Amino acid sequence: MTRPDLLERVHTQRKLRAAQGRSRVRRTVTRRDGVRVEVNGRWLTEFAGNDYLGLSQQFEVLNALQDATSREGAGAGASHLITGHHLAHDGLEQDIADWLGYPRALLFGSGFLANLAVQQALLEDGDVCVQDRLNHASLIDATRLAGCKLRRYPHLDPEGAMRQLRQAPEGAAMLVTDGVFSMDGDVAPLRALSLVARMQQALLYVDDAHGVGVRGPEGRGSVAEARMGVEEVPLQLVTLGKALGGYGAVVVGSDVLIQHLSETARPYIYTTALPPALAAATRIAVRHARRDHWRREKLQGLIDRFRTAAQGRGLELMASDTPIQPVLCGNEANALALSSALESAGFWVPAIRPPTVPEGKARLRVTLSALHTPQDVDQLVEVLARSWDAVRRIRNVGT
Question: How far is it, in rounded angstroms, from Cα 80 to Cα 61?
């Protein structure tokens, strides 16, 4: 028997990615000041991150991080169920549960781990997980690792979700969706999906990584914006690394489900707890996210300003009223050329290409923060429109 050579496979795949222009390269940020970042000795205005409320560098958050580090140390030292669960962890779980109006919360090291934990702890062989086709990769991978059947429905299509659930009548069922979709910036039809889940006896799970902090009353997210809670959405994910500016994730849910996760979820049981200092800092971020309505108001004003200006200059946007504003470019070459032109003008907006997005849907994923100014937005649109006109002229000449 001759086995495939793994190193040879790696080299072949690398050559293919290089030939397709799809190699991924990390850029190193050497300094950061609000939405300004230094990369390779140049200061750029960044329109690419997820710090929607500008809390990652808020001074009270940073003070809490420093103070707690001096008391608690750099790390938790163990998993939550051994000796790693600190008072700051407990307080953060309670704060987020109270904020979102859920009975309990459970803290995880990342959203990827949390999504895996939920599905592995609840789903078994013979069960089915029905998901929106554009769900985040962590949700798709979690279903595959859970060992149950994966069924996907067309984007934002509750009737498609109903069909998939009806076609898998045996076993338990979970209906899973992003709240705000990370690449398109649109919002799931949560009330319709809740009705589908109830009719098909499926548990509805919402990953609201890009919604909590930004949408809904007090920034409570897409579920609250849809006027729903634990009865309609028994479990939802809250990331700590987007609008809250930190790192980690929390799953909120009913007492029974959260207790079950804490006792059985492998990504919770067998991993070191988040640093307690980080949890302490995130508690301050939650406080600001709840009370600083001006952050959301300013952010929404910037979103409206960007859309009005971009559409006025003929740029092709998607149907999003969230901080995620994709500018469609068609092919990858256009997206790369636009990204390069923007960087030359002092803006950092990476190109998003297949396989992250479908073929022919390459884009610039512009993301807005409450730290941006109206002038930042105006200048970005101006440079983007001029660069896009130049790219199209070059493409026309080439053809």
Answer: 23
